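ingest -> fold -> write
write: protein_1
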Amino acid sequence: MRTSRLQLLAAAGVAVASLALTACQDGTGTRDEGASASQPVASAPSGASSQAPEESPSGSGGNGSTANGSGGSGGDASGSGDSGSKGSSAGTSDGSEDAPATFNPCNGANTSVTAAPVSRPVNHMLITVKNTGAQNCDLTYYPVLRFDEMQWVPQPIEDSKPQAVVTLGPGESAYAGVVLSAADGSGSGGATGKKLTVGFQARTPNSDGGPAAIPSLPAKGVYYDSSLTVTYWQSSMDDALAY
């Protein structure tokens, strides 16, 4: 009897073990453990999905901007805007504020010069300077005149002094009027000039502005006396002959 009871208990233990093994292999336990293990994985896509609408515009905008910045039209426009603004600012600063103005004197090397007596006003002559160069040039003060071998320099008419230096672009002209002699005959030391030398000044009064010009005069020459004076350089012919 004792042996049979032990055998029954042993058989019962085997049966319980078999049932437990069967329960573990029926798939239910596997699904439960799988759901528990996969829960963080499932929540991660859910979390990513909930952030996507917030990040997507920013992300796509950032990526689009970066892509465009590398080669797209949007980036080029942005890039050109920045560089253009800087370039413009630098150009303005360098060209007109910080850097000194470029001075290029007009003289006999970059201009053509003519000198011709005029009928009105009487006893006047007009000097015309035309810029024949490819760059702007500046006419400062007044022309320094010398007839033949004269030993004195005609003085300027101070009332004709302009407010600014006359600058000539390529092909543009400026003028100076010359009072040759006194209309009332009050001048002295009259002479007839056969050759005229027109000198140019630089930045400071009486400084050398470069090569002089020797314009042609009428064959009979030009009469002048001690009243000989000259205007400052003018932008218009009328202003040059107004004195």
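write: protein_2
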Amino acid sequence: MNVLSDNFAMFREGFLGTVELTALSGLLALVLGTLVAAFRVSPVPALRAFGTAWVTLLRNTPLVLLFLAVTLGLPALGLKGWDSFWLAVLALGCYTSAFICEAVRSGINAVPVGQAEAARSIGMTFGQTLTQIVLPQATRTAIPPIGSLLIALAKNTAIASGFNVSELGSVQKTLNAAAGYNIYVIFLWIALCYIIITFTISGLFRLLENRLAVAR
């Protein structure tokens, strides 16, 4: 217990940093992922090509490499002054958005084609059909995999500790460098913090899934 009690302020800062990083990255991933999913099912060839390229590139790029591209590449392009925290949000959000996109697209594909055809027959545009008819139904199918992806995102935030971001991974690095602490106890407390975060996300999405479930 002395590891936690002696360094409670550090653990609290790291825990809150991980929660904030997960929440902001997750929000960015949901927005980008849904938008790119719309591109992938769009009747416009250029948008479909962009969506396919986005997903193919990011899903096949290691997250660490993406962090390096963001933290080193953006300043080289003249985009300086970004805080390391927001660079981490950008890297994590963009990376996860590619997987969110595929989860949303699978939900869209699960909606019967007749729904979209009926909407077009009464004069609705593609945007109206997607936002008012297809996506509300696709959400039920996409909720479980999106929850799993956000849990993975919470664990992926540990990579940000290598890029000067204050979160649970940085707490572990700092305490490992300090003398007198058992490394296994440090890892135990860090693991418990991640379990709290992931169980919370899992519980929220389980409630959401039950709320949106169709009675059978």
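write: annotation protein_2
The two ends are 49 Å apart (CA to CA).
The mean pLDDT is 85.
pipeline exit 0
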